Amino acid sequence: MTMTTVDPAQLARESHKHVGDVARDALTMTWRNLLRLTRNPELMVFSTVQPIIFVLMFRYVFGGAITIPDYPYVDFLMAGVWVQSVTFGALNTGVGLAEDLQAGLIERFRSLPMARSAVLVGRTTADLVRNFFVVAVMTTVGFMVGFNYHTSALALLGALGIVLLFSYALSWLSALLGLMAPNAETAQAAFFPIVAVLVFASAAFVPVQTMPGWLQAFAKNQPVTAVIDAVRALTLGGPTAGKVVSALVWIAGIVAVFAPLSIRRYRKVA
Amino acid sequence: MAVEVEDLVKHFGDVHALDGVSFGVEAGTVLGLLGPNGAGKTTAVRILTSIITPDTGTASVLGIDVAEYPESVRLRIGLAGQYAAVDEVLTGRENLRLVGRLCHLPRADAESRAEELLGRFGLSDAGDRSLKTYSGGMRRRLDLAAALVHRPPVLFLDEPTTGLDPGSRLDLWAIIGELVDEGTTVLLTTQYLEEADRLADQIVVIDHGLVIAEGTATELKGRIGSTHIEVVVAAGAADQARAALSTVGPETAPDAPNAIAIQVADGSKAVLDAVRALDAAAIEVEGLAVREPTLDDVFLELTGHAADDIQTAGD
Predict the structure, then answer these.
(1) Which domains occur in chain B, in start order?
(2) By CA distance, what is A36's nearest residue in B?
(3) Minimum distance, in Å, between the CA of residue B89 and any CA atom of chain A
(4) Quick one: which of A141, A145, A167, B88 has the most CB atoms within 10 Å?
(5) For the packed helices A73-89 and A184-200, what is the interaxial angle rounded to 10 degrees?
(6) Beta-bridge partners for B232
(7) Phi, psi dihedral angles at B164 (to 5 degrees)
């Protein structure tokens, strides 16, 4: 059936996606996801209160028991709490996508003349914006309970930038799980053990040297530790360049693996 | 043809959702795609709306091949789904604005179009409330409004009234009727025979991924052509009445314990025969009705199972 009532030139024009439209669709979806967030005050409160509680808990509950050579524990701690929060927070990406799938919204989006990439890009970008605020709140609270950096303000900003880049990379892992899970609860259940192992078997809260040898082998060679080492180097000082490169390589690697997998999965679902 | 599919085949593993389906919808008319759950209706709609691709076969909308030019098709169609695909957390107005923006309307146009649609669908007062406060009928109206934001000439409605109360269903039917009057081409899937009867110019009946009948509602009913007489008698007299009526026609499944239904060829002549037979046996009749064939009968005849069975077996 090739009867075409529409001018072929017009069809060709319509098939061509303008970069501006693609970017605008992604922005629209980001706006939508952030708007949803403001309508869910519980989520807003929990996603900021929880990190604050972690800062306070580790600072005051464990701070007395754990001593780190050369630095006050809180200076050592902040890198761990930042990374821990954004790692667990990445869960939101997958849960949000699983909810949209379940509600049939992805189906509607796919029938609209919008860029297909906008659903995933809009989701991960909105989560990046959310993480920006979470990290900002934690940093403020950190300063209030005695955190101090031993490098420069620029290095501190670099550290926070790496934390946010890492959160963005994890959003793509989370997105894949969210698109594979039959519902939001399953997405959550699948994501939690992965990140729990990554966060707790890492340098987040205690030096890796205190762990048994077999665990050290894992803890030293995984992305959360790599990112925390870089963030610590940028806030506490010491050799920095290699650690930052290692963190960035992990981040780029996670995006390189999970973004294409998520996009491929997204094309298949709905 | 505004919508046309030819030899569509789509298998999901062992499930033959579509096994070679062809049909067309003429511009400005309504086609009812009728069938039980799992018949392949939704799969056909998802192929036509560019959401999935068929294994083989072609689909076109307004003469545009869906697989070749999905972007062009999406510019010209609206889809309202069975599950009311609207964002629960946002307000009605925000939902419509979102769709408007995603259809690349300028901000001001998206805003005024949202306002206009809220008014048209009786949602002006609820426009700034979260969808959590909407009733099922309101949600479905908003879903339909969302499908109309970019004024598509072709509309796909996938079971638009499934699960709605009768009042909301009538509201939605009236709205769909208006859209058709304005010239919109509609492909509607439904498992409600009454809905197809009421809205569709042409009906295509599909079951197990195959077209098993097509025609107008009248044509389909004519093909079955069985008229029934239903007699209601006092509770104790049913057996006696049954015996008296056995000379008029073969008995079929009755609707109630003290009702007797018989199948007849000529309704008006059979009524007289039935009255005479009942009178001769001195049976007091509480009610008597002639029932012309409905699409339910058509369905039972064509698929071997009643439409009601299908509805309860579904979901």
Answers:
(1) 3-222 (3.40.50.300), 226-292 (3.30.70.980)
(2) B89
(3) 6
(4) A167
(5) 160
(6) B259, B287
(7) -90, 155
| Partners of residue B87 in chain A, C-beta under 8 Å | 32, 36, 103, 105
> Cα dist. A101→A109, A116, A118, A132, B315 in Å?
10, 14, 15, 26, 17
- Run of H or E residues at B239: helix B238-245
User: pLDDT at position B244, please?
Assistant: 84
Residue positions counted in chain A: 270
Distance separating alpha carbons of residues A230 and B261, to the nearest angstrom: 84
Query: Nearest Cα to B295, choosing from B220, B225, B228, B229?
Result: B220
What number of helices (H) and strands (E) belong to chain A? 12, 0
Q: What is the pLDDT of residue B138?
A: 92
Residues 6+ apart with CB under 8 A from B92: B118, B123, B126, B127, B128, B129, B131, B134, B138, B142
Spans of all domains in chain A = 19-268
Residue at B260: amino acid letter: I
Q: What is the pLDDT along chain B (315 residues), one digit of tens a residue?
A: 999 999 999 999 889 999 999 999 999 999 999 988 888 999 999 999 999 999 999 999 999 999 999 999 999 999 997 766 899 999 999 999 999 999 999 999 999 999 999 999 999 999 999 999 999 889 999 999 999 999 999 999 999 988 888 888 998 999 999 999 999 999 999 988 888 889 999 999 998 899 988 999 888 877 766 778 888 888 788 888 888 888 888 887 766 777 888 888 777 788 888 888 888 888 888 888 887 777 677 777 777 766 555 443 333
Tokens of residue B260, six digits: 């007797």
**Start-end of H helices in B86-199:** 92-102, 107-120, 136-148, 166-181, 193-199
C-alpha B243 chain-centroid distance: 39
Q: Which residues of A touch B86 (CB under 8 A)?
A: 105, 108
Q: Under a CB-based contact definition with an 8 Å cutoff, are residues B51 and A111 in contact?
A: yes
With a cut of 70, say whether residue A5 has pLDDT above it.
no
CA distance B83 to B140: 8
Measure CB to CB from residue B104 to each of A11, A21, A110 and give the nearest one: A21
Positive/negative CA dihedral, A105, A109, A111, A112: positive
Return the residue matching tokens 């389906």.
Answer: B21
DSSP A71: B
Residue from the list A6, A104, A114 with its beta carbon closest to the beta carbon of B85? A104
ipTM entry: 0.86
DSSP A99-137: HHHHTTHHHHHHHSSS-TTHHHHHHHHHHHHHHHHHHHH
Chain A interface with B: residues with Cβ < 8 Å = 1-6, 10-11, 14-15, 17, 21, 24-25, 28-29, 32, 35-36, 39-40, 103-105, 107-114, 118, 270
